[in-house]
Amino acid sequence: MKHAIIPITALVLSIGYYVLTKPMAVRMALPVRAVLSMDEFYQDASFLPDFIHCVRAEVTEAEFSTFATRMKLVPYKGSDAFPRCDTNWWSASGSASGTFYDPTQREGDALMAKFENGRLYYVAYAS
User: Fold this and answer.
1) Which residues touch 44 (CB under 8 Å, ≥6 apart)?
2) If you placed Cys at 125, which of 49, 52, 57, 103 could pair as Cys (CB 3.0 to 4.6 Å)?
3) What is this structure's pTM?
4) What is the pLDDT of residue 36?
């Protein structure tokens, strides 16, 4: 039975690592001023690994560009709409114009960000 515990432990640790480090990576990629005033939403769907993480922060266009570089995001060329976040402060349009994304995400997952109306909108989710 000892051998069955190792894969489960590894799975739990890897999911825990992702959940704890991705939100931290977002905060570290933002300017301090933006972190101090950002709005953030995180919801775990209670069935691992499903989650959604949304951030809205006031940044300049140059700061957004730095954020995209730090997070290793590339311009999004797809036709899907920008993801929606179910919070009262989320005001990003559904347009994917100007969106950047992480191309290393597995199918069904997404990590996207865009600059709109002086704000950075960031969404990451796993399904």
Assistant:
1) 19, 50, 51
2) 52
3) 0.76
4) 76
Closest C-alpha to 31, from 52, 61, 54, 53: 61
- Residue 16, SS3 per DSSP: helix
Burial class (CB in 10 A: 0-12, 13-18, 19+), 94: exposed
Q: What CA–CA distance (Å, rounded) separates 33 from 36?
A: 5
For 44, the domain range is 2-126
Distance between CA atoms of residues 55 and 69, nearest Å: 17
Q: Output the pLDDT for position 19.
A: 44
Check residue 107 and report its DSSP letter: T
Please check whether residue 51 is in contact with residue 44, taking contact to mean a CB–CB distance below 8 angstroms.
yes
The count of domains in the chain is: 1
Residues of the chain with pLDDT under 50: 1, 3-6, 10-21
pLDDT of the residue at 11: 44
Helices 61-70 and 2-29 cross at an angle (nearest 10°) of 160
Structure token digits, residue 125? 């989710």
